[in-house]
Amino acid sequence: MTAVETPAPAPGTPAREAPARRERSVASRLASGAAGGALRVFLLLVALFWLVPTFGLLVSSFRDPTDISTSGWWKVFTAPAQLTTKSYASLLENDGITDALLNTVWITVPATLLVVLIGAMAGYAFAWLDFKGRDWWFMAVVGLLVVPVQVALIPLSGLFRDLGIFGDIIGVVLFHVGFGLPFAIFLLRNFFAEIPRELLEAARLDGAGEVRLFATVVLPLAAPALASLGIFQFLWVWNDMLVALVFSSSDSQPLTVALQQQVRQFGSNIEVLAPGAFISMVIPLAVFFAFQRQFVSGVMAGAVK
């Protein structure tokens, strides 16, 4: 096989010059710098600035009420003897706050689990089961996403009163489940629709029914999306006060309502408010950080084909 030689340039012909390197603009240099250490330092500063109120509330929850009223929380760095656990002892002795904390758990956990479970089943049905009017029903569910909570407060108050559950925990749970399902169904249906059809057909050929297919194949694959949905629902229900103010009573009020009433009744009840507010804030943070890996995976699911 004969090699093809590149003809040499004719004598006197100037050699071809290498293309000149384009000079980078100022904007390009700034963008490259932002993508490196400068952006990381900026984001770190923003994160630290965002955590300052949280850290201040933590320190205040361990200070004496007299110290809180006379100086700022940063004084603890020069006088660490101010730190005490008396505020948390007062909190545990306050039956109203402890009962409200338990009510918050009894409201948030069932409302989150029911939304995730029912939303997963409905999302799978809309994605892979054929039934009459499926697309129209799904459009109706999507339309419910724009319905504000305030619209349903008065009608559901009358309905719950007729059912005898107004003022009970079950009424608050049902309200949160009803308004959490449209988003759950929309999110999970789009996630389930991206599961390869061949995988489901292979499971059916192996003899798996729809229930077994959903429980053993679909749910494990949807773990990141379920975790993301659970975090969203948990944070929304835990921090809610509007629905709890309307549908709960003095025996079923959650922590948000109890703290609000403490402010209105006592005004300066800091030894209860500071630790109660910190507990109300730190539990959702702990849940988020515990499932942050699944949360990121669920949010990014479907972003890359």
TrEMBL record:
The UniProt record lists the keyword Cell membrane: yes
List the Gene3D superfamilies hit by this protein, alphabetically: MetI-like
- Main subcellular localisation: membrane
| Localisation per UniProt entry | Cell membrane
Looking at the UniProt entry, the stretches that span the membrane are 30-52, 105-129, 136-157, 169-192, 213-238, 272-291
Membrane association type: Multi-pass membrane protein
Region labeled Disordered — which residues?
A: 1-22
Q: Output the SUPFAM superfamilies linked to this UniProt entry.
A: MetI-like
Which keywords has UniProt assigned to this entry? Cell membrane, Membrane, Transmembrane, Transmembrane helix, Transport
Can you tell me which family this protein belongs to?
Belongs to the binding-protein-dependent transport system permease family.
Q: What is this protein called?
A: Carbohydrate ABC transporter permease
Source organism of the structure: Streptomyces bottropensis
